[in-house]
Amino acid sequence: MATDDDRKFMKIALEEAQKGYDEGGIPIGSVLVSSTGEILGRGHNMRIQKGSATLHAEISALENAGRLPAMRYRDATIYTTLSPCTMCTGAILLYGIPRVVIGENRTFLGAEDWLAAKGVQVINLDDESCYGLMQMFVKERPGDWNEDIGEEAKAV
Amino acid sequence: MATDDDRKFMKIALEEAQKGYDEGGIPIGSVLVSSTGEILGRGHNMRIQKGSATLHAEISALENAGRLPAMRYRDATIYTTLSPCTMCTGAILLYGIPRVVIGENRTFLGAEDWLAAKGVQVINLDDESCYGLMQMFVKERPGDWNEDIGEEAKAV
Q1: Which residue is catalytic, options B58, B63, B147, B152?
Q2: Does pTM surpass 0.95?
Q3: B153 with B142: CB under 8 angstroms?
Q4: In what order do the strands lie in the sheet with A39-44?
Q5: How, if at all, do strands A39-44 and A77-82 pair?
Q6: Count of A–B CB contacts within 8 Å?
């Protein structure tokens, strides 16, 4: 079940997404938070800004958290404004993060079934602000979006 | 089936792994190669060197390849000296890379079952040089190795 804290941290993830959009990037944000509410790392998608094929929002948040001992991930929650792709899902499973809170999965449905199969708790807030920002971006720049999810550019 | 080219490119992945070891890092290397034999990206694990939780060898190779259109991945082969973890497997699936050549999976067995389930061709060379380098490292620095795969440090 979503808590007030979940909505608070999703707002921070959305701030990251907005920062990405303002930089001309893909507006997806993420925050890694300990069970005591400490922000361990936050970040946003850097494909455009850094010419990066791997710095999705979740990967950026994990990267910005730096090197952590395994136990630090084991009671953490990762917030992401958009349902995580297979790479980000794999990273969540690698570090044994037990709880994922998602802004929305209407724009893109990632590997939530893998998370569920491994016993990770997945909470979808179906947040209109997360959805609205992504929808605006996808309409504005479908080529950049498709590239980010490994798809060929489609006619619009 | 492994080809002469596969052995040639695994040698380059192993050079990357050795470079990582010489830098004081975790000795895993990777190369992304097009179907015409063009090296699109190469790299090695950077956990120690960059304090990075996400720059595994395969992620480094993808990152160093930069932004590529989807079609560039679709006939490529990724070489990695060690069986890919869930994160790297997820990245391979994200970009639809159809073929993975692995140095060895005795030190660590990654998510090869996910690759197979998605129709990705997985070839294990069971290379003694890849295995020997990793075994030496794991014995020397088990803490760094366990941290990299999201495990608690174990007594040795």
Answers
A1: B58
A2: yes
A3: yes
A4: A39-44, A29-33, A77-82, A99-104, A121-124
A5: unpaired
A6: 100
Residue of B81, B40, B47 lying closest to B61 (CA atoms):
B40
CA dihedral for B32, A148, B111, A31, sign (positive or negative): positive
Q: What span, in angstroms and rounded, lies between the C-alpha atoms of A121 and A99?
A: 5
**The two structure tokens encoding residue B114:** 């996910």
**CA pseudo-torsion sign A84, A88, A89, A93:** negative
Amino acid letter, B103: G
Nearest to A9 by CA among A97, A76, A101, A74: A101
A22-33 core/surface letters (b: 16 or more CB in 10 A; e: else): eeebbbbbbbbb
* pLDDT of A2 higher than 80: yes
Find the DSSP H helices in chain A. Answer: 4-22, 47-50, 57-65, 70-73, 86-94, 112-117, 128-140, 142-148
3-state SS class at A32: strand
Question: Distance of CA A54 to CAs A48, A115, A131, B64, B134, Å?
Answer: 11, 20, 22, 10, 25
Interacting residues of B93 by C-beta distance below 8 A, sequence separation 6+: A86, A87, B114, B115, B118, B120
In this structure, what token pair is assigned to residue A105? 């999965």
pLDDT band at A1 (very low <50, low <70, confident <90, very high): confident
Would you say residue A156 has pLDDT above 60?
no
Instruction: Please tell me which of the candidates A59, A85, A90 has its beta carbon nearest to residue B86.
Output: A90
> Bridge-partner residues for B123, per DSSP?
B101
The residues of chain B scoring below 70 in pLDDT are 154-156
**Separation in Å, CA of B143 to nearest CA in chain A:** 10
Asked if the Cβ–Cβ distance from B67 to A51 is below 8 Å, we say yes
Helix (H, G, I), strand (E, B) or coil at A151: coil
